Batch of 3 targets.
Target 1
Amino acid sequence: MLFAFGVAAPSASGAVFEIVPGSFAVRALDAAGDQEARAGSHPDRLQIDFGLNSEGTSAQDFAFEMPAGLNGAPGSVPPCPRELYEKGEEECPAESQVGTIAFKLSAGGEATFPIYQLEPAPGEIIAFGSIAGFEAVLTMELRPDDLGLTFTAGNLPEVAVSGGRIELWGVPADHQSGTSILRRPFLTLPRRCGAMDFGFRARSREPDAPWLSASAQAESLLGGCQDLAFEPKLGLQLGNSRADSPTGVRIDLGMPEDNDPDQLASAQIRNATIELPEGLTLSPSGAAGIAVCSEAQLGLGKATSASCPPSSRIGAMELASPLAPEPLVGDVYLGEASPEERLRMFVVASGPGGIVVKSTGAMRIDPATGRLSSVLRNLPQLPLDRLTLSIDGGPGALLASPLTCGSFPAVATLDSYSGGAPAKALASVTVGASADGSACLSPAAFSPRLVASSSVHAAGRPTAISMTLLRRPGEQLTRRFAVSLPKGLSPGLAGVELCPDAAAASGACPAGSRIGTAVAEVGAGFSPVALRGAVYSAGAYRGAPSSLVLALDAAIGPFELGTMATRAAMRFDLRTGRATVVTDPLPGLVEGIPVRIQAIGMSLDRPGAFRNPTSCAAASFDATVEAASGAMATASSALPVTGCRKLALKPRFAMSLSGSAELHEDGNPGFRLTTRLRRGDANLRALRMSLPAALTFDVSGLGEICPRGDARDGLCSARARVGTAVAQTSLLSSPLRGSVYVVAPPDNGPPDLAVSIAANGVQVGLSGRMSLRHGRLGTNLVGLPDMPLSRLTMRFRGGERGVLSLRSTPCPHGRDLTSRLSAEGQNGTRIARRVRVKAHCGKTAPGGAAAGGHPSPRPTATR
């Protein structure tokens, strides 16, 4: 049926259609007919007036735009059944009436009709209709920009209307006649103070007619925001309550509505910052496969669906509002970073009637602790029973649970549209099991493992080595570690370019200093993500002669975190030559993101950088590991070495006396011993020398004797120095040079010797035991480090401060002096030689002294 108040004149080229200037007005009134200006109140009625000028046409479409925050509650009245309304055989029940609509007709007269709330059609939020014959349906939409309500009426009956008034009842039960429904509020004014801006748009029936618009403000400003209650609730739940595990999290914000029509509504949440429990952090392993959604793909402020990549989804959002018959549900995407925020969240939720709610938020990270805060901004001014933000869980979750068990509080700080002091809401989560599901320990376990290997097992051969320190999920985090290489596994970095100190700090080392690769597995749970990089050789550091730089590329999914650089000093044991790599503290946070290192390792594979021991005795990599809590642990990994017995030991020896003026009885000649070793032979372990019977040990001219403790630490005084030593090795670019010292004996026997040699910051100490057997003075040089030496030369000075004295002269016709020498290799092979001691006599003067010399006045003394 058509609306029967008269049909407008046929369209003509001179048709006129306009909104009468100043005719559009809106009033919110209380029961006494006065202005209702209390924010959050339920007005008795809302009146909307409008006027039209039209000639030769009529209105086809109306749209009334409510200010954001002015809401309706569909559940306040029972809706009129849709089937009943569409049949038009009888009117809707009075219980469904929510207002009236009155028209002024261009032909004169007025007509007033009821407005009923209709049962919504599929896809609608709420709809309104009137009596049979007025076949226009008024529907409600949410604007995409501010989510305010817009009531639209399309395909209006062809009636020439000069104006009208729409009146919506704030509490329908107060205006209905003959009903018994409960008094429930249908309208609620915005819960913010200030002006209420309304809009009116109309369009005529003319082809391609434009929309005309008018605006108006309510006559009174809203006030009294301080009277609105604001007591939001916070709920929090972990998807995985095990420690140090990937987890999702569910955040619930509740703002229960008070349906008392005589009371003010509660304030609405505008911004929410939820400080998540301490220890609930981002997990790098969860970020590995995530993409980002751009602002263009989000389309903020547009009613269209977002086109974010599925791989950028990180969670879900649900909004339960009395405005909609069912919750608005949607997705949370990782948004592209902005200069102010690295971790942005894009929220897209939809519901009946094509509602699309879009907003942005963020996950903020405390750079000092890694603690997360979830930030939601400019939430829609809709009545919300509940807002749920869920971050996805599962093995690849973006979040990780706390490292330890216990109860962890969270706090939400919430601002309202009504202003005033922020509200606080508290909640907590409980972590009740370790990562593998077993009972929690306090403190958490700390038993790191070391896995190390050599690419070649043959003794004495060049090799590459790898070392990896492992931590099980749920154990304490590693703060730093030191790994001692097996005895005899000799580093040879001679000729390698060094990374400058300035570059070492950032890991930006030159390619020429690269000696291997580095890897770290980071994240929570049993599927960590691998960060890869390089190991570089660097110079002296923290008192050590050399160092390493571990530089890892921290690019994880969409997060470019730069380079994780860790420097490690390389120290050498004075007695054994054993190398130990001692790291600085490992990165715990990178730009606020806890990396949770589960494994960190290096593979040192530069050709010639390392050489295997020549001893097949049991050897191992030994680690000392410190936890973040200060707890200490040790771990070892064996190094198998084979084929030691196949190595030969064929050193060549040369011995000589020097100082022609001292080559006589009671003279103090200089003495030199040179040992040459072949490449590929076993390394020396011990060298034993028995001096000729004609030589005795004389310390009467020595300034002092080095205490044994100082000798052990390489701290002997120059006054105890009696000679020099030089060792050449293929592992260093420069020979090891140093001194020979006389050391206090352990008992009343003859004094011992100590040799201290160094090069490029590497210091090696050797000890020699003196003995006297069958009138011959012997020296046992023992404990030589298992390192490849090509030459070892020891020189004892002669003259007034010499320590060797001749009992008889070898010049000019003395008998040859011989010495017995034996050597032992690191593989246990022994050889013995009788070596002639050459004497460089020169010309002699009468009396037996060498020309130009004189007998030494010192008596011979052995001590």
Note: Confidence is low (pLDDT under 50) at residues 1-12, 844-863.
Target 2
Amino acid sequence: MKIFLRLATYFKPYRLHLAGAVACGILVAALSAAHAWLVKPVLDRLFIEKDARMLVLIPVAICGVTVLKGLFQYAHAYLVRWVGTRILETIQNDLYRHIVFMPIDHHMRHTTGDLLSHISYDTQMMQVAFSSVIKDLVQQSFTFVALAGVLFYQNAMLATIALIGLPLVIYPLVRFGHRLKRLARSLQETVGDMTGLLQEVLSGIRTMKAFGREEAEAARFAGKNRLFRKKVMRAMAISEMSRPIIEIVASLGIAGIVWYGGAQIFAGTMTPGTFFSFMAAAMMMYAPVKTLSAAGHLLQQATAAAERIFATMDQPNESQRDRGHRTLPETCGVVRFENVSFRYDAAGPATLSDISFDAKPGDVVALVGSSGAGKSTLVNLIPRFFEPAAGEITIDGISTREVTLASLRSRIGIVSQEVILFDRTVHDNIAYGCPTASEAAVRTAAEAAYAHLFIEKMPQGYQTVLTKGGMNLSGGERQRLAIARALLTNPPILILDEATSALDTESEWIVRKAMMNLVANRTTFVIAHRLSTIQRATCILVVDRGRIVQRGRHDELLRDSGYYRRIHQMQFREDDASIDDEGTAQGDRGQVS
């Protein structure tokens, strides 16, 4: 009932259209009953009494009733479909908006496939309910009532015999409905798994092909698809079981009508016209019962989909959880961590413990440590992708908790190793953070990022549409577009997640030149994996197991026999070894030649 009441709020703006649809449905039901009632004058007045006037009036009446019924049926279906598509559009927009505003930790806990199945499969099930079920529930319900009225008007005793078996249908249909609802939930979860698998494989298509895993992945999908088919067939078997039950009950009712009605005709208490009019109404009445049964099953599946959708929409998103009440002013970018701790799970171990440091404009703060040490988590606390469990993060003396997320993130630029580009023009990708930026501003940012020359060589220049996230661009070109995007927003605070670690030497050199323009006069945080990239950092923070174990400049940390010096020696020993290996290989090639 809660689900239906909640759905009712979406119907409220269209109540006039729904009232029109209901009115048309009532008229369709009344005209269907009129069709059944017309059987009586056809037999009694036309064929038995041989009334010549009926030879004209009855065909005209049949045609008139049929035309009116068709018009009202069309109007009813159109109005219901119109309302249904409008409501579906609103729900999809609300759901999508809610999902994109969900915090990062929500997306970490839920697969992409599950979220995609909400927007596609679950809303599709609701569309079926809106466009078909609601139409059938309104029209067929009134049709059943109107035809039942004809039965009781013609002969109350016969009507009682015709309807006596109806309660026998209700109980199994209700049981089938509950089972279908449970199966619908399971089906929707399976669709989420299949969508997630498809998204995962297509996004990692190169890795799959590199390891020759096509057959294995095809078999994996086939297994999921087989499970989906079995659940669909189980749902179909339950749904179709209602049809023979209704047919059996209907045949018993018709048999009772023939037996009792035939006896009434022989006794002379009922005319053949009344009997056949009654039979027509009785036979027509079981069609709405079948339709309502199928509609009820679809409604159960749609209810399961609505429960999943509303369960997602009931989870508070960032805008709802945001308690920031101030707009962060134009900031100079002094960032301070004061005894900050963080854990992903309230009952789990701390990911960061007692982190404290300062950074000001012009500073380049490098974060060094092994994988899983907490470097990415630390910088993700600055734009409040996660909230600290303890301590305080301030920008220019203002707590990040006190400012709105929109104003906070507008002051922060992020360039990561994995560049995300969209299937839009180069101009739109650079201007993603500043949609109103002029062409001149976009070009200036691209020139500062050393991206203008390769953009000009593209077929349509800045209006070239990038497909598949710019997969036809090199890693260095994608990075330079990301730097241009950050330059255009002109953020006072910058986060670089080792944006050059996956590049070749030439591309890295160009990207480093672009980054020199990017970091100038900004407060910059760099997650470093190669120590050679951070030797000029103003401060290096060595993070180990969620704590800062060392801090200082490159030369200062090298003089200290600590963690930084050990990993520095390991990295440069590996570099020397790779150079020796390369030299040996070249010597071998020379001897062969």
Note: Residues 576-593 have pLDDT under 50 and may be disordered.
Target 3
Amino acid sequence: MPKQLSEHLSSNKLIFLSVLFFFSGATGLILQVVWMYRLGLVFGNAAYATSATLAAFFLGIALGGWYWGNNSARFKRPLAVYGLMEIGIAATALLWIPGLEFYKDHYASLLSLIGNNRSMLTFTKFIFSTSLLLLPTVLMGGTFPVLAQYIGKGQTKFASRATILYAVNTLGASSGAFIAGFLLIIEYGVSTTYTIAIIMALCIGILAIILDKRVAQSKEKTDAFSEPKKQSTAILSTELSHAQFILIAFSSGLLALSAETIWTRMFAQVLQNSVYSFSAILVVFLIALGVGGLLSHILVRVEFSKIPTLLTLLGLSAILVGFSPLIFGSLTNGLNYLASGTSWVSYLQSIFKLSFSVVFIPTVILGAIFPFLLKASPGINQEPGKFVGKLVLFNSLGGTLGPIISGFILLDQVGLWNTIKIIAILYGVVAIIIASTSVYKQKYIFLALPVIVVIGLLLTTNPPIVQLESNQKILDTWQSSDGVLTIVESGGNIQMRLDNFYTLGDSKSILVEQMQAHIPLLIHPNPKKTLFLGMGTGITGGASLSHKVEQVEIVELVTDVVPAAKQYFSPWANGLFKDKRVKIITDDARNFLLGTEKKFDVIVGDLFTPWHAGTGSLYTVEHFKQVKSQLPKGGIFAQWLPMYQLTPESFEIIAATFASVFPEVTLWRADFSSTGASIALVGQEAGAKLSEDVLKQNIVNVVGEKKDSIDHMATLFYLGNLKAIKNSLSGVVLNTDNRRSVEFKAPILSYKASVGQETFMVGKELEKLINTLYTNLPPSQDPYLSNLPPNEIKYVEVGLLFFQYQGLISEGKKQEASLIREKINILAPEFLKD
């Protein structure tokens, strides 16, 4: 075959392979997103469980690189093997589904064997996630070594071709992250997204096999990329030693994934922290890695010395990573909340702009290190596939350990900014080791840059971790993989914050937080065992101890919340941290429910921010069913809703989902605020009715003394029966694990509300809901209140009037407020005095 024609066919094949490998990267990332999504529901959204899943993924990639790389030279037709591997990924991904169901069915039994040993439980989750992901990830890890073997016949252009394949595969992964995070899951759900990814893998495999057959028919076979016969199949000798090669391959995976992990935590200090925010950061990171692959492709083609090039890349990585917090602080104007009060599109643009400004260039540089090793490899006589397999092995092992070390050890021990500084310093240390152990004549010149960088980073002052107003001061701070938790004092009010802007509770809200426990316990005839999903300040859980409970269990996701609440909120927590009836568990709420066989008379769900990544799972049909299964006959579940964070559409989705599980749903309030209302959906069994005797019996636990001579007025906090708005909920699509519409819609709706395109459930919108409940099903006709006498039912109307009264007072409409006051005095003369 003429040389020109052979080169033309080789070029066309490389383009076709690159397209296939691009879509292979997209497919792999979509599968990874779904795996993380589903395993988060089963293992819990706690950071330890997520990290175990991520580590299992990279471990499979590492093993796949090692196994398939070692065996790639045996394959006569590597391209056909690659096609079969993609088909194998599709097939083994299907096996993951029954495996996940098996875990869910047997988790409670597993937990009973392990007990309360959290370390053993995390290790067990890691083992199980590894077993679920092992087959498809081992196949994924082998795709690059097998293709390297295919294109590596004759090594003159091997590094150039391999870096192109790596770059397009990574860019494909970025497109997969974007498509999964912003399009597929929200539009079609998790199951359909997973099916699409499996079909994509299957098609890639079939196309690769077809291409291989066409090559065979043209007698081109695997020699399409051949060069003169005299070329050795060994990687060309360079100055880099084998030990140096392993060090750089391992450390580049370790430090790159560590940087991504910590940068994500850094961005959490100024973002809405929704699924979109984290998807945007991941997309930019992967794009930058892909561009880094293209940069390495250019460096491979240019006749630069290998060790100086690597030292330059390592030194620049140290500088750019180390000073990224300062750039971040400057661009966010001292950790301001990003794009507050703007449209949803503007917010997304701001995230991408900030991500590109802060992490893109550093990631391009550090992303060029790994693929550049395809050129700067040690002089060892190995087949291309085996060499690339070893490269994938050490790099992925580093990627396995990176998030664990940075996210759980360093964050806990030294905090966010110092962890970034350590990552940067380690890049410099690697450069120093390579330079000092090299035989390169001018190595001392290249030692100077990393040494100066390391010294400079050690002397650099960290930016602030929390933004404060002039009248605020930080009392204490905890930093971990769960986020940055701070205790802030302002004018005598003690506030607990997570990630700079999210308030978990404060001392001035004591009455509201107490009512979140009192309401459900007030209406239960004999609440002995109670469960709180979420603790916050501990004030709500502590209020339950005023009732005649025998056991109180509290599940809190954020580990640092427990010592913070104990240290700073004990005066308002009613002895919560000393009472022997109380058991506080650090765990994910869904994971805890999946693993317990206990029954609870009353279960209380905290105010979960609807747009937070992961919290949408606490408003799904599956979660509500799990809660219902933990209730005995007559049990009560109260899910509190932050109305000031919900739009009418979000509220309707949650309410309709709740009502699909609980046959009797009523609405109760914790306060009479029109701007920051907390409202509970209270679910009970069919035919449940409010008992006057129960209210009189339990009211003493709320007011502190028995008042037989007057009305208990408990129905002041009753808003109405959900049946009153059942028609408006009838066409609402429910929130499920497959389609977590709350989690995906709430971020968009909240930003629309901030610019007036939507409204939150406050003010007139909240009043509209309450009036609709009252009008469509008046208290006198409400079957839930049918056992109450008229003198008690009237307080539902008194509560409505008092809500209107408070709203008018806050608006300065005193004349209209006085008219409402007169109505209240007619209905309940003693109410306003009391």
Note: DSSP finds 26 helices and twelve strands in the chain.
